Write the structure tokens for this entry.
Amino acid sequence: MKRLIWIVLLGITLLLVGCQNNTEELDVSSSLDVTQKIDVVLPGTDEKIVTIEDDQDIADFVNALQIDDWVMEKVPTDASVDRQFNMYQSDTKKLGESSVDKSSLSEAAQMTTYQNSPYLDFSVKNITLSFKIPNEVMEYLSSYPQ
């Protein structure tokens, strides 16, 4: 079920990214596997704490999120931003591009956590969804990398 929710969120990401240019092909069957990099950033400074690029590390990260236990709920107005997790994927190949062309990575989604608060925002293009998350997920994300 965790993967299904993540696939739906990533599917929305891909749909919105694909819709920005009518000439791009949309890979509807994409899943979490298309996420190729996650930057953990301190907001306001753009200082990267760590970059996650290994497929297994990305899968472990997603599994630790316990997405099945997220509940849609508004973030309290007094919450202070803690970290951002910027998720990247390869640009969509366009007609005529070779499969050996080096594609650049584009930001597909962003997750923002809050200090000492079990909430996060998940943003895809112009859509932001807010969630209340389990305390152990909050602790995991606020101490990442461990």
In short: The two ends are 26 Å apart (CA to CA). The chain has a mean pLDDT of 78. The chain has three helices and seven strands. Strands lie at 35-42, 47-52, 71-72, 81-90, 105-114, 117-124, 127-132.
